[in-house]
## 1
Amino acid sequence: MKVLDGKVCVVTGAEYALGAGLAAGLTDAGAAVALLGDVSALTPVVADLEATAARVAAVECRFDSRESIESAFSVIPDALGSAANGVVHAWMPATAYEPMDLVAVDDARWNSVWEGALNATRYVLQSSFSVLSNRTDDSNGGRIVVITPTVALSGAAGLVPYTTAVEGMRLMAKSAARQWGPNGITVNCLAPAPEQVPIGVASMAVSLAPPALGGPGDVVVDLAPIVAFLLSDAAHGLTGATLCADGGVWMAP
Amino acid sequence: MTDNRLAGRTAIITGAGQGVGEGIARALARDGARVVIAARRSETGEPVAEAIRANGGEAMCIVTDVTNRESMAECVNKTVAKFGGLEIMVHNAFRGGRPHRLEELDDELWQQNSRTAVWGSYYSAVLAFPYLSVAGDRGRLIFITSPAGVEGSANLPAYGSVKAAQRAMAKSLAREWGPLGITVNCVAPVAETPALTSAFSQNPALKSLIEDRTSLRRIGDPEHDIGAVASFLAGDEASYVSGQTLVCDGGSFLGL
């Protein structure tokens, strides 16, 4: 019996290596996985997962539209046999990954990164709540995991818009945890090392300490099992937490 | 704080027409800074400036909409034209503290939170930067955030999110502008403000609830408790403090 057998999980942001690796790890853990986003970009990821006999579907959606995200959630039962009971939100606007000094950032870029990331997170959380709070089975509540790299905890030069957005996402998740606990929904964050996202920052650039475990880890081997636990029934007593899975760099508090 | 320790420095404080912003403006003026009361309405900003002048301080009110780049640029430009520079930028203005459920958070309420707290911080930073960089190791950028930006909020999820965003912005800017000597910090207060007084009138038990979980058993005074900390960060004594959030809540949140 695998930890996520019988679970249907949504993953956003699988267009990038981190989201794709988490999706692969969740299928390894037994979940059926719906990848939400730009289907043309997700097609190679789906093909790789299907080659391992995973149950996976790509569902088109735009992250600037609550209606589009709600629509994507609504087709998952037909695609994978059941509504989602777990959600992993790893999506960020592509502009967020472009380092730039703040004084060079114009209003359009700020809007793209900040409003783009926070609106997407709000809409994904709201759509998740709608599905998870209306489940009628005995799946022991719903699980949401938001991906918030540790670089937003440490701060980094050249990444003001990105880190601002990620911390906004992390605290939106914390508040969701406080509000939705009575609904049996847990909301947690996973904070991987900055090397796991395409921002050009290494852990050592924002910390004096080397990774205790030697490096940022492998997404499928090291990070996905942590996310699988957070999505599992066993994690029903854990909410509002941020698990730093960066190889042992960030150890505060 | 020592009288006149901020003499010769100019500060803009947004949202200074009342509450925490007014308290900070009064504290900075008391310590010798020239202060600009950047307020959305002259009806609130002018009396604060007048009161500071009546106490021997130097102050002027500039009607400012922190959600609008042109309005913020005009505030900075008028400040520099009047006082010859800008060493201290304090972004405090906020609108959108209406309790809500996250699943029901609509665009209008989100935009109030986002535009005042986060866009206002962005405009404060980029528009003050040319002058803060000239000020060098006297350059100060201070954001007024909240313990909710650390703990999250069961009543105000949008507020917790935007206040956390300000903290992250301060950390990254501290690293980005540190080589120039500029410090960037946050103050996270709990203070007796018109907004809190209104909340107490709607929920009389709230005051004792907050006081009971506060080590010092009282709610902060905007000028003497919160303003004093902002003034510390604005001065030379804090020139080696950057990227930090000072939680000024009387010892309630102790989680850092």
## 2
Amino acid sequence: MSSLIAACGSSEKNSTSVIDLDREFPSESGGSLINAMTGEPSSLISMIAGESASSAISSNVFNTLLRYDKNLELEGDLVESWQISADQKTIRFILKPDLKWADGKPLSSADVLFTWQSVTDEKTASPYASDFQLVKKATVPDARTFEVTYEQAYAPALDSWAGLQILPKHLLQGQDLHTTSFARNPVGSHYYKLDSWAHGENLKLSRNPNSVRGQAKIDQLVSRIIPDNSAQFLELMADNIDYMGLDPIKYSRIIPARPELQQKLALYKELGNSYTYMGFNLKRKPFNDRNVRLAINYAIDKQEIIDGVYLGLGINIASPYKPGTRWSNPDLQPYPYDPQKARALLKQAGFADNDGDGILERDGKPFSFEIITNQNKEREKSAVLIQRRLKEVGIDVKIRAIEWASFISRFIKTGDFDVVVLGWGLGLDPDQYNIWHSSQQAPGQFNFIGYHNSAVDKLLEQGRLELNPDKRQKIYHEFARVLLEDSPIVYLSAGYGLTAIHKRVKGIDNPAPPAGIGHNSEDWFIPQPLRRNEINQ
Amino acid sequence: MLKYLIKRVLWMIPLLIGISLISFFIMHLAPGDITSNESAFNPKASEESRQKLREMYNLDKPVIVQYALWLQRMTTLDFGKSFASHQKPVFWQTTDKDGNVTKGLIQEALPITLTINLLGLAITLLLAIPLGIVAARKHLGWQDRSITLFNFIGFSIPGFWLSLLLMYWLGVVNNWFPISGLHSLNYETLDTWGKIKDTLSHLFLPVVIPSITGLAGITLFVKNGMLDVLHQDYITTARAKGLAEGKVIYKHALRNALLPLITIVGLSIPGLIGGSVIAETIFAIPGMGKLFYDAVLMRDFPVVMGILTIGSALTLIGNLLADVMYAWADPRVRRGVVRG
């Protein structure tokens, strides 16, 4: 055992307050970082677990073949290099030499093959299997080489290999991944290994001496499970945790108003890979009419939503990609707020207020619809602002917030809705075939708004076949342009991810690079004088 | 008496089956299943994989078949495995072929919730009985009025608000008590005394706050019971005999006044295993309330059914115990039971 932290105890409070936290310190190893998470992972085999709490921990324990660097370009994680064949169907990965699992056993291409076999196995119900089922043939020519061949060129393939955590064959062979105790007692190859897991309380990771990527600076990572956000914040105020995600109110109101918090906490904001939108059920009238969709788009003041709901901590977007990345088309502009234009477009679509009640009608029927959303405060508030703006142009809107599981199975899956306010959290690959392609409309699939545009279909198909990043970029820029023009959804905003980290943690990039502050967490360090009291054993 | 007990216990079996049947169907009335969770909306997650999960957990079968499968397992007291927590056993630990022990979800959560609730109930009773007696004896006096006011405030204050306030005052401003969780991070390194101290300090707020807010009801019960009894003829008789006031109150009055309390305590037995979702969430305690709530949200049917079944069994047992206690405490009831 190296060291453990004393989270309570009154003496530690004073020890850090006399030292200037904003000073520069030389980088050094050691110390513990305590963060808080709202949910407990179900298992640390993230290809089975599927939830974010699981990958938050397991990404410190397991490696992938490829990873994204600071600027969101792919680089090798376990692999030294990779080559794509001339017909773009075969990818050959060469592993780095002398890789080891945390238990000292060698990590070879057989482990990679085993992982691929597991995720695609008939008996495994992995939510992420579909990318890997496209692999027609996987072979291991030697202990450092892993080769996959696809039926046809599949551009998102590389991204998928950046998401599949490689599992040890020697410990998992013959086990059922759904029940194995390995999921709660994993052996990986990354910077950290799991020391202990107190159910419902905390998970402790410590440095893996056999890490395939060298040594991280911080000795121990502790994740405390604290479901309530207010309780997390109290723990942060009391200096019992170092790190937590914030909501806009804490970020821009509460912390700035308290000098004692400002003094010890550093705030970070980074654009996430997600956005909030309002989506129309395109199979229903009048949303099948592009003029109506455009009118609603013009009638909504997106900046008002960003300012009112996110306290300004979001940005206006015009494409379904994270702004500033290569896939986001810089030439596209969001629809401005223009109620005059909205009224004109609605008139063009045949709507008029004949009975003078302030609500437009067409064919004797008032223009009235329901926005449904899940119980998410920000989305509910956005819906309320939309409701008011649409009222101004003569559209009557009702709002309903529904519990998540019911929302999905009763409304989304059955297509029984007018308009949704929802969000998409996306991967880093630009492929959005599952969301926009017209073939993806069956119940349970993701084109539940019923979008059908043959130009988009074609672009999405091309984008999947093209492995050259520059050519791909052109395809997706065009895709985003058509999508914006067609307006099947109204982009509401892309919110910033907000984080507070105690200033004792040094070495964090600010402002955050495209990949976010976490990209170099192995280089974060806690200088000796700033550490909590530690008991050496 | 024995015949009566056997009859009552045997009656529980059809009752439990009925309860479980109704629970099972109501649970399935809510739309969605385990596949409509967070990853249901990840565009990388395919519908085929969700279908596979449904088949794996028999969720593709008609509800009545699912119930039959569940009932079949229950005949061997097998509560099944959770869908949402990597198939941990719902009730009690299992050992796999390599000797790895996986603890059951209820097995882990129940002792925590029981400890908190038993301590809470003890504190409530210890405070409520004396307060109720004082309030009854000094009926309409300043003591009675201040107790009523105190109870009224305790009853009206939202528990979560008081919790957050006290967490801030005792944990952040003054660092006297830990804010959340059950153990300090260095718990394993403490000696036995340190461990006890650590656990007690973590339990302080979660135990005391519900006790204060729950005090009002029981105090009122004791007070009213006491008031009723104090006006009975036999109390006047006891006083007329010249018995000391203490003896009148504690020997003659209290025993009768506490009769309704037995029912209340009996009925609170099932409540002992059901933790408060709000308190457990705020204090980050992995207890039964949070387990049940999360299971409902995740549509983790085996866990929901497991907790409901154990809960209803305990409710029935609690009722029986209350009746038996009643019979023991009150000869009038006893005669009725024996005859019936």
